[in-house]
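go over whats below:
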Amino acid sequence: MNDRQKKEFKTFARDEIEALKAEIPRLEELVKPVAPDNAIGRISRMDTIVNQSVAEAQLSKARARLVRLQEALRRVDEDEDFGLCADCGDPIPMARLKAMPETDLCVACAE
């Protein structure tokens, strides 16, 4: 991975990290339980519970992606083989690194 590609990846990772740091508190608000004495109606309460479970799944994914991006951002400068496939040594496409920053395999070797 050349310096231009490293810079591109670091810019992408930092932007994603900032977006996730903004999104996580919003999702944390959505998963807070509704007080039982809150008179929102039975149907509305059921809808709220469904929405909370969806938000909980999104929150879990956002937290996991944040950790993966932070780790990849650390590795990009420390690991001289960052961006190269661990099996074949070929460069991992930037699109794959952006989608899966924790990957150390190219598409062909991952299959």
Summary: The chain has one domain: 3-110. Helices lie at 3-30, 42-78, 94-99, 107-110. The longest helix spans residues 42-78.
